Amino acid sequence: MKVFLDTNVLLSALVAKGVCHDLVVALKTTSPNPFERIQCHTCERVLLELKTHLPTKFKWSASDTDSAITTFCDEYTIAPAAYTTVPCKDAHDGWILADAQLAACDYFITGDKEVLTLYNVGTMRICTPREMLLWLRTGIPIPKFEAHQDRAKYLVQRLEKIY
Description:
By secondary structure, the protein is of the alpha/beta class. The protein has one domain (about 1-160): 5'-nuclease (Rossmann fold, 3-Layer(aba) Sandwich). The protein is built from eight helices and six strands, in the order βααβααβαβαββαα. A hairpin with a 2-residue loop joins strand 5 and strand 6 (about 125). Helix 2 crosses helix 7 (about 130-140). It starts with a strand and ends with a helix.
């Protein structure tokens, strides 16, 4: 299974202990299918955003920023740069989605509400960090074609089945 982590997920994982941090840790140690390894992907565009936002928005030092980026480069597969974009409100998001699609990722994990409204790009499912973490922890897969408008209702139903 190939998952692509968007900039906002990686930033949140680095600067706060929460769902995104727990997800990044879980992706290293857990797989919903014991016979299939999870391959984490990102791209140069995301790494460039990290290099820009960590020092400016979060006051990280250059050495800490470089160290974090080096870690992601060592642990994640860097997707090739796409030559065409995915139609999207934010053109930059379209390029990142295209990179993930070119890498043949199964899931694109983001907290960006505009990107989440796309629901999927080709066969690549777009989901929230919480949805992916819930899948990893419970083993109940994320449905491929559940409407995002029903997300809150659906998550409650999933949790009721578990507990």
